[in-house]
Amino acid sequence: VQLVESGGGSVQAGGSLRLSCAASGYRYSSLYMGWFRQAPGKEREGVAGIDSDGNTYYADSVKGRFTISKDNAKSTLYLQMNSLKPEDTAMYYCAASPMSTVETPIHRADFGYWGQGTQVTVSS
């Protein structure tokens, strides 16, 4: 599975961004997909996940502000981020798990395929 993220950038607090992740090389619709982020000096943390049935997971820190979705026809995963805060600043990674479902909170160990990351910077 190849994953390519796009859509990162710099915004002011309260702003919005939409990240995209284009997937290829596998039956995309059967994968569990997730978004992770990693700030300098911190562990990579799971932000949101979605299974093949469209069931979603969100970390408490982003619940109500971020929305994960996917378009199976386009093999693309999205992360709509609203009401962004400076603490959302991080490198954001798209990830895919060969399993149809994973335990939550999602953990990087369950994901075997990763994109290169896209930087999100939120200024106060």
Chart the SSEs and their pairings.
Blueprint: E1 2-6, E2 9-12, E3 17-24, E4 32-38, E5 45-50, E6 56-58, E7 66-71, E8 76-81, E9 90-97, E10 113-114, E11 118-123
Parallel strand pairs: 2-11
Antiparallel strand pairs: 1-3, 3-8, 4-5, 4-9, 5-6, 7-8, 9-10, 9-11
What do you see in this structure?
With 124 residues, this protein is an all-beta fold. 0% of the residues lie in helices and 49% in strands. The protein is built from no helices and eleven strands. The strands form two sheets. Strands 2, 4, 5, 6, 9, 10 and 11 form a seven-stranded mixed sheet that branches. The chain has a four-stranded antiparallel sheet with strand order 1-3-8-7, with no helix packed on it. Strand 7 (66-71) and strand 8 (76-81) form a beta hairpin.
Key features?
49% strand, mainly beta, 0% helix, 124 residues, 4-stranded antiparallel β-sheet, 7-stranded mixed β-sheet
Q: What share of the residues does DSSP label as strand, in percent?
A: over 45%
Rg over CA atoms? 13 Å
Encode the helix/strand succession as letters.
EEEEEEEEEEE
Give the oligomer, counting copies of the same chain as homo and different chains as hetero. single chain
Give me the secondary-structure category: mainly beta
Major β-sheet, in short? 7 strands, mixed
Large-scale geometry: globular
Report the uncertain regions.
none
Q: N- to C-terminal separation?
A: 37 Å
- Record field, number of beta strands: 11
Number of helices: 0
* Mean pLDDT rating: 95
Percentage of residues assigned to helices: under 10%
